[in-house]
Design a protein that fits this description.
Strand content: over 45%
Shape: elongated
Mean pLDDT: 89
Number of domains: 2
Number of strands: 12
Helix content: under 10%
Low-confidence stretches: 1-10, 20-24
Length: about 200
């Protein structure tokens, strides 16, 4: 039970489903590099340019990632994958997260994602996995909807592991969702951070 609670606490991406259209007060996905951390305040240089000041919750959840192999994406696995549409109509994965078993079913669905302008996110169960010359072809089922995704051999495959505040240090790359508070501050409840060379790919 403790491990399950910890895993649920550290999940910060591909879990909450689609965000509403960005507007004042709407949650915001942030990808970037930590510039500084002081107490509960963290400054991140975003991938779009510029910096943001973030306020970390007192009980902020911090997770890192561990590399897996494409063979770990097997029938019965519950995964999250960001993908772009290919010219043949098949989604081509940009990254794959294999969820820990305690998080099965989290954020299930297929929805727009902002990793690239045309990307989607699918959190789903793997029905079948077929090896091919150009990667592993997956058939996924989410809420009764089937989605076919091709995972090229060079796509990062990862899973969540616990991390700590000490891992939030300048130079580390992060992925997180920030929610504006009534005072305009960007509040953060969970952070996924790079560690041991494994960078958040989502």
């Amino acid at each position: 039970m403790i491990r399950r609670a910890a895993l649920l606490a550290i999940a910060g991406f591909a879990l909450a489903g689609p965000l509403p259209t960005l507007a004042q007060g709407a949650p915001r996905r942030i990808r970037g590099t930590i510039q500084s951390v002081s107490g509960r305040e963290m400054v991140v240089a975003t991938r779009e340019g510029g910096t943001v000041l973030l306020r970390l919750a007192d009980n902020v959840g911090v997770s890192a990632l561990r590399k897996l192999s494409l063979a770990d994406v097997a029938p019965g696995s519950f995964i999250g994958t960001a993908a772009e549409p290919g010219p043949d109509g098949v989604w081509r994965a940009l990254e794959v997260l294999v969820f820990p078993e305690a998080m099965r079913g989290t954020g299930e669905g297929h929805f727009a994602w902002d990793l690239t302008p045309t990307s989607s996110m699918t959190n789903a169960t793997v029905d079948s996995a077929v090896e091919g010359n150009d990667g592993r072809s997956l058939t996924l089922t989410a809420r009764g909807q089937q989605v076919k995704v091709l995972v090229p051999p060079d796509v990062p495959v990862v899973t969540l592991i616990p991390a700590a505040m000490e891992d939030l240090r300048p130079g580390a790359q992060v992925f997180l969702t920030a929610t504006p508070g009534a005072d305009g501050a960007l509040n953060v409840a969970r952070v996924t951070v790079s560690r041991d060379g494994v960078v958040p790919p989502m």
